[in-house]
Amino acid sequence: MTPSVEEAGLALADPTAYADDDRLHAALTVLRRHAPVHWVEAPGYDPFWAVTRHADIMAIERDHTLFLNEPRPLLATSEQDEINRRRREQGIALRTLVHIDDPDHRVLRAIGADWFRPRAMRALEPRVRELARRYVDRMVELGGECDFVQQVAVHYPLYVILSLLGLPESDYGRMLKLTRELFGSSDTDLRRGATPEETIEVLLDFFAYFKEITEARRAHPTDDLASAIANARVDGEPLNDFDTASYYVIIATAGHDTTSSTIAGGLRALIEHPDQLDRLRADPGLMPTAVEEMIRWVTPVKEFMRTAAADCEVGGVRIREGEALLLSYPSANRDEAVFDDPFRFDVGRDPNKHLAFGFGVHYCLGAALARMEVRAFFEELIPRLKAVELAGEPENVATTFVGGPKRLPIRYEVTPAA
């Protein structure tokens, strides 16, 4: 059943809609066609404009002085927004790269930028490929049937991030739990609790862990990203505790959940489109475009918010100063005006102008790493994958921010490494 425009708008503030691809994309299609810039008044949320067309989102991303990340960078309930406002006033709020604007954003982004440039990626690639091999081998050890998300996909990218940060593998379990609780705060299976206070507890646990890391790296600097963050200076002064912890949090969480979602969603897409799996087997040279298509198809980051710094227009609609806009990336990545047959999964799609990594000054810092991880995993898996099928019903995470498959039961045949 096709939703009304009002029903479609409300879906953007409903975490369960993101767990149902058909429902979500039916809503987004209605909005793109009939109300691409649509005012949403969802119960429990402050109102916002839903922006669903690729061109309008690009225009907003390009003008980072008119459309600001602060004070509402992510969709949250009115209650959570108020808690965040009070914490900002107290100077104890999470301030990651997605929360802040220039000039702070430019200065803080530079701290980690060198760790994601091509030279650094080349140095990290052997470790990434070693870990990809380890987790394809793990599929062999599991005996031909597993929950791919829970037993493979969530583990591999986190080990990569731990390697980049220079954190010990003994901390793996703690980091996995915290990242899943943070991004799974709307999902009853993943969250720590249902209240905003319990969500804050997750952040405080992150902060406590990384405060220990900061103290250790300042006392004994090492050659890793954790040390670069701990010892960074702005105007001659070290970052304060919350800015330092915030930097760790965005690297650890964004570098983990988004990539694991893409890998799991990418495998599901290949299972559900066996012609494309056969095509990729026959032509491994398609892997770079296949990776981009998996990223477009899954779009693990569902939205970011912007606030208008002045009266303006978006898509012919008048936006007033102070009003918030939700940028719907899954919608942009299915926009019929940009993508030929957007609901077709095509491992050879070219061009592929997806916005899964954003655009402009807030373009994802770790995009090159994410691409390398996805590519390394499937370059290891596809030549060894003799058969694969679903062994149960897949489930997606209920979220309004970051997510993808939560469970992907599969039956498969993977050959041992040569």
From TrEMBL:
<dbReference type="GO" id="GO:0006707">
    <property type="term" value="P:cholesterol catabolic process"/>
</dbReference>
<comment type="similarity">
    <text>Belongs to the cytochrome P450 family.</text>
</comment>
<dbReference type="InterPro" id="IPR036396">
    <property type="entry name" value="Cyt_P450_sf"/>
</dbReference>
<dbReference type="InterPro" id="IPR001128">
    <property type="entry name" value="Cyt_P450"/>
</dbReference>
<dbReference type="InterPro" id="IPR002397">
    <property type="entry name" value="Cyt_P450_B"/>
</dbReference>
<dbReference type="GO" id="GO:0036199">
    <property type="term" value="F:cholest-4-en-3-one 26-monooxygenase activity"/>
</dbReference>
<dbReference type="GO" id="GO:0005506">
    <property type="term" value="F:iron ion binding"/>
</dbReference>
<keyword id="KW-0503">Monooxygenase</keyword>
<dbReference type="GO" id="GO:0020037">
    <property type="term" value="F:heme binding"/>
</dbReference>
<keyword id="KW-0560">Oxidoreductase</keyword>
<keyword id="KW-0408">Iron</keyword>
<dbReference type="Pfam" id="PF00067">
    <property type="entry name" value="p450"/>
</dbReference>
<protein>
    <submittedName>
        <fullName>Cytochrome P450</fullName>
    </submittedName>
</protein>
<dbReference type="InterPro" id="IPR017972">
    <property type="entry name" value="Cyt_P450_CS"/>
</dbReference>
<keyword id="KW-0479">Metal-binding</keyword>
<keyword id="KW-0349">Heme</keyword>
<dbReference type="GO" id="GO:0008395">
    <property type="term" value="F:steroid hydroxylase activity"/>
</dbReference>
